[in-house]
Each structure stands twice: as C-alpha cells, then as structure tokens.
C-alpha cells in the first residue's frame, strides 16, 4: 500500500481487503446466494442504468456520469448528507472521492432495486472508500 500514491488510489472506486477464509467457514453448510440470482440482479441494475441514460447513448452505467449528472441523479437525504460530510472529514477524502461515493451508492441502490439512495447504500459505498485509509491491511 505504501507504494501506491494517494492520487492513484483516489481514482479506484472500490477498495476491498480480501482476507483468507478459515476452514470452518469453507466447510460450513451455510447456503450462499446462487450465482444465477446474483446475475439476474446485476442485469436488472444494468437495465435500470441503461433506462436512466436512455437519451444519452454514450452513457451506459453510473460510473460514466459527469459531476453535474451526479448532482442531479444521486440525490441523498439530509441524514445521508450528514453521514457523507462526517466521512469526508474523518477520512480526509477528496472532492473526487465525493462524486465516486455517490456513483457507487447509486449502483448499490440499483442492485438493491431501490429508487432512492438510502443510508445503508451510502454507508456501504463509504466503506469501499475507507479501506485505503489508516489501518488498512493490518
């Protein structure tokens, strides 16, 4: 991590730390979500995004939105604004990260089948940005 510059990390939307899975989890009988169901959810989310950008054929997904489109499409509640403001201050995130968090939260909401970006969608998107901060990887 120390070899990757902050500005480069800032351009990566999802930061996920992958830790080894222990034997008990691997061998458990717990049912996981089937790939077919995940695939259907992703297709529905992509269809929703294509519908959203129907008048702009150059846009196919949320990641391609301009900053102005982010402001128009990724509206959040006052509670969401407060959460994002606290995250920006606490994590020292950039203006670029602000837009990317909103785009990712819109995608998470699309995957959940939600018309609105809810607090849990925003919190998940913030979490994906917070892994490059203090304490990551150990």
| Overall spatial form | globular
- What is the share of helical residues? 55-70%
If helices are DSSP runs of H or I spanning 4 or more residues, what is the number of helices? Answer: 7
Low-pLDDT runs of 5+ residues are none
Task: Give a short account of the largest sheet.
Answer: none
Give the total of beta strands: 0
Distance between the termini: 11 Å
CATH topology: Helicase, Ruva Protein, domain 3
Residue-averaged pLDDT, rounded? Answer: 88
CATH class: Mainly Alpha
Q: Which CATH architecture?
A: Orthogonal Bundle
Protein traits:
138 residues; mainly alpha; Helicase, Ruva Protein, domain 3; 7 helices; 55% helix; globular
Folded structure, characterized:
The protein is globular and about 50 Å long. It contains 7 helices and no strands. By secondary structure, the chain is mainly alpha-helical. Helices cover 55% and strands 0% of the residues. It has a single domain (33-130), classed as Helicase, Ruva Protein, domain 3. The mean pLDDT is 88. The protein has helices at 6-9, 23-26, 35-52, 67-73, 78-91, 95-111, 119-130.
């Amino acid at each position: 991590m120390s070899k990757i510059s902050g500005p480069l990390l800032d351009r990566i939307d999802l930061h996920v730390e992958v830790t080894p899975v222990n034997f008990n989890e691997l061998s458990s009988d717990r049912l996981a979500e089937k790939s077919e169901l995940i695939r259907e959810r992703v297709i529905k989310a992509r269809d929703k995004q294509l519908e959203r950008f129907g008048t702009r054929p150059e846009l196919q997904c949320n990641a391609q939105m301009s900053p102005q489109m982010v402001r128009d499409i990724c509206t959040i509640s006052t509670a969401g604004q407060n959460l994002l403001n606290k995250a920006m201050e606490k994590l020292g995130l950039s203006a670029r990260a602000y837009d990317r968090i909103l785009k990712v939260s819109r995608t998470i909401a699309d995957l959940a089948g939600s018309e609105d970006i809810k607090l849990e969608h925003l919190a998940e998107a913030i979490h994906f940005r917070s892994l490059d901060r203090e304490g990551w990887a150990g």
